[in-house]
């Protein structure tokens, strides 16, 4: 008998990650309570931390505001490079 592949929306994944990081519930407890796989929860928590710290090189920005911030940071880097060449 094969397992059915489940998919979860972004809001659900965010809530699960917040349970672990912000509420201090262990990954194993969240997995038991929600009947989720350990690897999926850990991956979601890692992505949440990456986006929260602004190191989002692994994926796309999660909000329009984060995208604008990244664009401004790139402009600052470009201007600094232009200034050093003068």
From TrEMBL:
Coiled coil: none annotated. One of its GO terms (molecular function) is DNA binding. Transmembrane segments: none annotated. GO terms for biological process: DNA transposition. Gene3D superfamilies: Homeodomain-like (1.10.10.60). InterPro entries: Homeodomain-like_sf (IPR009057), Transposase_8 (IPR002514). Belongs to the transposase 8 family. This is Transposase. It comes from Azomonas agilis. The lineage of its organism: Bacteria, Pseudomonadati, Pseudomonadota, Gammaproteobacteria, Pseudomonadales.
């Amino acid at each position: 008998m094969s397992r059915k592949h489940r998919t979860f929306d972004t809001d659900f994944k965010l809530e699960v990650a917040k349970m672990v990081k912000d509420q201090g519930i262990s990954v194993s407890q969240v997995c038991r309570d929600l009947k989720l796989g350990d690897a999926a929860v850990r991956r979601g928590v890692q992505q949440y931390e990456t986006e929260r710290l602004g190191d989002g090189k692994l994926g796309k920005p999660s909000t329009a505001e984060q995208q604008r911030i990244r664009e401004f940071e790139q402009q600052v880097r470009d201007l600094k490079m232009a200034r050093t060449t003068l």
